[in-house]
Amino acid sequence: MELRAELLKSIWYAFTSLDVEKSGKVSKSQLKVLSHNLYTALNIPHDPVALEDHFRDDDDGPVSNQGYMPYLNKFILDKVVEGTFVKENVDEFCWTLCAKKNYRPKNGVGVLPDKDAFHLWCLFNFLSEDNYPLVLVPEEVEYLLKKICLAMSVELSCVDMEDFISQEAVRQSGITVWVFLDFVNTGRLTRGMEKDSVTMAIDEVYQEIAGNIIKQGYLWKKGHLRRNWNERWFSLQPSTLHYYVSEDRKECKGCIELGHNCCVEVLPEKEGKRCMFCVKTLTKTYEMSAPDTKQRQEWTTAIQTAIRLCVEGKKSLHKDLKLRRREQREERERKHTAKEEELQSLRLLQGERESKLAELELLQ
C-alpha cells in the first residue's frame, strides 16, 4: 500500500498536467498514451484490449480523475510488483509531463538545473501530506530546507524562512511544489554557493530521503579470503549494507543482510587500523575501519538504527520520522485546540459572572 500511495502521487501530477482546461477531466486519447507509458515504466505487460475496451469511443466525453481511477487501480497498480521496476523512471516520466505545463522559472531562468528541480519535486512528494491536491505543511518545508542547508554546510536564514512560510496561503493550506520551486529558484537559499555545491547537496538529501539511504561513505573493510584491507564505498539501507568499489556504485562487491540476528560492536585497534568496528551476522563477522572516531560512532549508530527498523518491519527511516513528526504536530494541534476551548469556556463563565453581577447591582 505504501508503494501504491507513492506512485499515485506522481501519477496525480501527470494526470492533472493533461487537464489543460482545469475542468478535472482529460481526453481519452491522452489517457491512452499516459496508460501506455505507465505500463512501460512500471514494467507491466501491455494489455491493449483492456485499454481500448475501457476507453472505447462510444463513451461520453473526457474522463475525470474518478473515472480514470478504476482503470488505473485494476489494470495498472494492481499488477505492480515491487522490485521489478525502477521507481525513479516512473517519477521522471511523470515529472517530464507535469514540468512542461507547470514549472516556469521567472524570466525563463532558474537557479536550479532540471535534474535538481526533479529531485526537489521527488522530495516534496515524499514529505507531502497524503491528501489531494498535494501540499507541504510549513513545518515540513522548514525541515526540508534545513536538510539541504546542512548538506551545503550553511545555516538556513531565519529571515528568509519566516518571510516565506508566514505568507497567508502557506500558513492556511500549505505550499504547492511549484511555489516551493519558485522560492528555491529565487536564490535566497543558495546565495553565495557554487551551482555544483548546491547540486551535490540536493543529491545527497535526495539519496538519503527518497533513495532510502541511511548513511553512505568510504570505509576500510577486511577481506574474508585474502584477509587484506580494501577501501570500499558503503551504502546503508534499513535491511542491507552494500559495499562497492567506488562511490559511483557501478561495481558491487558484496551485501551484508541485516536483521534480528545481527549486531554491531566496537573493536580495539589492530593490524595498524584504528577506529575499528564489526558487523556480526549468524555466519560471518565483517571488520571495518572508519576514518576517525566520530565517523565510527556515526556508522555504528546508523547500523543499529537499520537493524532496529528491520526488526520492527519498517522499510524506511524517513517514513518513520515523517510519521513521528506528523503525530507530534497533531498532538500539538490537539493541545492547542483543547487550550482554546478551555479559554473559551473561561470567557463564557466570566461573561456569565459579570452579567449576574450587573443584575445584582440593578436589584440593589
From TrEMBL:
Residue ranges of the region described as Disordered: 322-345
Residue ranges of domain PH in the record: 212-308
SMART domains in UniProt: PH
One Gene Ontology cellular component annotation held by this UniProt entry: cytoplasm
Pfam families according to UniProt: EF-hand_SWAP70_N (PF25530), PH (PF00169)
Gene3D superfamilies: Pleckstrin-homology domain (PH domain)/Phosphotyrosine-binding domain (PTB)
CDD domains per record: PH_SWAP-70 (cd13273)
Sections of the chain in a coiled coil: none
Biased composition (Basic and acidic residues): 327-345
PROSITE patterns for the chain: PH_DOMAIN
Protein name, entry field: DEF6 guanine nucleotide exchange factor
